[in-house]
Specification:
Blueprint (H helix, E strand, L loop, with lengths): L16 E5 L14 H13 L5 E3 L2 E8 L2 E8 L6 H11 L7 E7 L7 E4 L8 H10 L6 E5 L10 H5 L5 H22 L3 H8 L1
Parallel strand pairs: 1-4, 1-5, 5-7
Antiparallel strand pairs: 2-3, 3-4, 6-7
Helix pairs in contact: 1-5, 2-3, 5-6
Length: about 200
């Protein structure tokens, strides 16, 4: 389904959806598990022929056409725990309801290669999602949670784990999930959420 991405940037008309990938800015965080959302957004932008390089909404953003819809692709620069400042500013600017804001982020509950799509719910302990829900007062954001695997030893500090990098085998599996996330985004913006969840959950 990736060939259905339309290779056009900056299409006319209003932004209809916001796609936010969560992570931490800075070279020291590139490729870490906590930056799964950034990695997925970069892939989606590449497939859509878009550039995510405009400074706005306390992040880097760019527009694309995905599934026939004009979308804003956003990577908050606020650091993970304050992701809501960026996401809520963008959604308010475009007057988007939370149902049209798709958030992509890491989840240690699933191994690399797995993802979960939900249309609403709690933050599940993920601080970026927690901040988005707190600042918006809503929990009806569609979200794609990308598995990054849990600590091999639970005595290990969780912060150290999520800021660690994937092994080569894990990264290969993770990239497969990122491709599925791109397909899922396309289905979600087309109103085909049930199909997306049936295919990828």
């Amino acid at each position: 389904m990736r060939n259905l991405f339309q290779k056009r940037e900056g299409a006319a008309g209003p932004v209809e959806f916001l796609i936010a990938g969560l992570g931490n800015p800075g070279a020291q965080y590139e490729g870490t598990r906590h930056n799964a959302g950034f990695m997925a957004l970069d892939y989606i932008a590449e497939q859509a022929g878009a550039k995510v390089n405009r400074l706005k909404f306390q992040g880097l953003c760019g527009t694309a056409v995905i599934g026939g819809k004009k979308v804003l692709l956003l990577k908050p620069s606020t650091y993970m725990n304050l992701s809501g400042r960026s996401v809520v500013e963008a959604m308010n600017f475009y007057k988007l309801p939370p149902e049209r804001v798709i958030v992509i982020y890491d989840d240690i509950s699933f191994p690399p290669g797995k993802l979960r799509i939900r249309l609403k719910g709690s933050d599940g302990g993920q601080n970026g999602m927690k901040n988005i829900i707190c600042l918006s007062g809503k929990d009806t954001f569609p979200r794609i949670r990308l598995g990054t695997g849990d600590r091999p030893d639970h005595r290990m500090d969780l912060a150290d784990w999520v800021l660690s990098r994937f092994s080569e085998d894990e990264l290969r599996l993770f990239r497969g999930a990122v491709e599925h996330a791109g397909d899922a985004v396309e289905l979600l913006v087309q109103g085909r959420a049930d199909e997306a969840m049936n295919r990828f959950n």
